[in-house]
Amino acid sequence: MRHAVIMAGGAGTRLWPLSRKSTPKQFQKLIGDQTLLQQTYSRILKVIPNEQIWVMTGEQYADIVHEQLPDLPKKHIITEPSARNTAAASGLITLEILKEDSEASIGIMAADHYISKEKVFTDIIDKAYKYNESSPDSVVTVGIHPTEPNTGYGYIKFNNKITSIGRRNVYAVNSFHEKPDLATAEKYLEEGDYLWNASYFIFNGKKMQEYFREYSSDIFNKLESYIAKPSAETYEKIPKEPFDKAIIEKLSNLAVIPAEMGWSDIGDWAALHEILTEKGESTQIATLNHISNNSENTLVMGNGKLIATVGLKDVVVIDTEDVILVCAKDSVQDVKKVVEELQAKNRGEYL
After folding, report:
1. Which of 30, 39, 224, 226 gives a 20 to 30 Å CA spacing to 311?
2. Average of pLDDT values for 213-226?
């Protein structure tokens, strides 16, 4: 059967101070009346039955997930005692699913993405499962057609066409590339054979188990020890590695389906502002209690008190109960550095 995993353990530090350790961005209502987690679940539900949807998250978020997704089988909320990066999380959830369905086809998807063209999403995910079912040795990913030379995303270079499934072309993956500088990103866009890496992966569960044994045996052996006798101490010994680096980039049978589906990972305040603007808001975005005089291209999010802006341009203003963030839009990537500084100064009350 087809199973879908929603990865919901991220911290979302670039959306601080709204995204906190207690309630990261995936549990927040940033766009519309549903949280990002709920929106992701609703999208996947159009492709995968509720009984075959899983959530991978941290122990501290299990109750929030159950509260936000009450119809999801509670046993399908799989938790980590500590964050050990995506290789450990992906391996753990794969082994848990295989206990229930030894022939599982598994899709891993993030909880914190926004997709405006949901019909395109459901069609592409369906085609990705179909290709993997016809070629179980493969791992299929989804690449997003870049709309700008974005330096905040990783890139996938693709080459020859493998096949077509319906109207969707499937290509061989040539290589993965880390977040580039602006000149390199512009070069990728000009060459036309690069896609943004959305980190969606569809694979056969049994084959992935084999890949872990072959390419990341240390992680796999420690995961088996943890599953046999769960303890936080055992899990802490698992190396912290991204799934891409530990497994995916070591494989030769990778396929990618290009997509244009109005995708964003909402990685920072500028990305959120862009989405709100595209949804028909003006470039001057405000929520709750705000008045403005001659402010342009400004995102203002309040916590109840009146916020007045005068003459601001390209600025983000975020007001929460205990923190106010004022940030130039072209510096939103550096919000993460504020969080790191608070951590270094042991100011956990603001995290």
Report:
1. 30
2. 95
